[in-house]
Amino acid sequence: MSLIAYEQECAELRARVAELEARLALPAPAEMNGHHHEASPFDQDGETRLLRAAIQSLADGVVICDRDGRLIHFNAAATAIFGERSSEAAPGEWSSRYGLYQPDGMTLVPAHEMPLVRALQGDSADAIELFVRSERLPGGRFVECVARGIRDADGDICGAVVVCRDLGERRRYEAEREQRLRAEEERLAAEKEMLRMARILQSLLDHLDVVVWATDETGAFTFHDGQGCASAGFERGTLLGKNIFDISPGDHLVQRALLGSAAHDRSHMNGAVWDNWVIPFGEDDKKASGVLGLSLNVTEAHQAKVELEAKLALIQRQQEVIFNLETPIIQVWDHVLTLPMVGVVDSKRAARVTDDLLAEVSRTQARFAILDLTGVDIVDTATAGHMLNIITAVRLLGAEGIITGIRPNVAQTMVSLGLDISRVRTLATLRDGLAFAIRKLTEDGSAARRAALLPRPTRSVESG
């Protein structure tokens, strides 16, 4: 029932109450037009039966009481709502007997607030809402009451009538209407959110170099859009209805997605490099009914990466050349190696120098290894320790380590650090170190030759 229809019924109900009031207040037929004619018993009985039948047939509950508050009539609808009529129940007992509560469903209606009682007092009670709960109606129901006093020919109140309408249908209508309004609001909110998401997606498609596409389970394109379509050699939307397997036979990404697995790869198309992502989607999680794909043009990023990798490789090669130039091991004479040190000697560089120098000493059978510090401006404890370790390692291979080219400030630093270099031979310049090594090699060679020229001692044999 619509709200308009309900209001129309309310108006009709009020009209019926007014008509009932008018009929009950009409003078007897003998008194009409100033003439006192006695009405026939047939007319009085017929009118009474007709009036009772009309009240009984009403869909709304009708309750009538006399001037003393004694209930004299319940129609069928009133009996269905309140139960059987009791003429002995006084107005103060109505609430507890018939289960009449205020709309909170907990507070019994006081006698003076009863619609019938108010009508007996001459008040008009309109749209009074009550809650009725009894053993017959354990769940209760809401009713709306309209009450009026009944006046006799002299205008005195001789009783009262109340018409009660069950609000269940109205409440159901209001609940349904509220539910429809809420559903409509949710639908509008969902459409608004979908429109917002569509605008976001469209903005991305219009401004980013991407291609977003979708296919059904057979591989036919159902969506194809994006600014990147031009870079791929297609117009936006031109692939709709075409099959991806005809354009790219054996596309493993789409095949994997149709089987339920997301996939990613990088491909080349129309002179551009693309990163492709393909994911399955469908009505449920058991089987994919299509795939959703996104292809991003990464040509510039790919070229930048290739160029960066080439630059890094070049820098690494240059670093290796520079490192080799920083610590060259030079064989300046037979059995004499020199190692010019330049810059700062850290742990990594010292380890590599030590490995290279020991390998060269072993390979060339060197007798002397000259460590030249002419290019070293600053020496700290760590640097000095590395150099002493190099000299010690050379000595273990049977060669003599010589340090040359120590600058005055370096010498002062080494002394202030308290380093013990008393067991290390130090000379002023690389030339002095080379001269010393050659001289020692010459002296050792001469001594070896003289020893070879001396006669060997012979054993004396005693004659027997």
UniProtKB/TrEMBL annotation:
CDD domains: PAS, STAS_RsbR_RsbS_like
Pfam family, one: STAS
InterPro entries: Bact_StressResp_Reg, PAS, PAS-like_dom_sf, PAS_4, STAS_dom, STAS_dom_sf
Span of domain STAS: 326-437
Keywords, in A-Z order: Phosphoprotein
Domain of life of the source: Bacteria
Residues in PAS domain copies: 47-123
Keyword Phosphoprotein in record: yes
UniProt keyword Iron, yes or no: no
Protein name: PAS domain-containing protein
Organism for this UniProt entry: Polyangium fumosum
UniProt lineage: Bacteria, Pseudomonadati, Myxococcota, Polyangia, Polyangiales
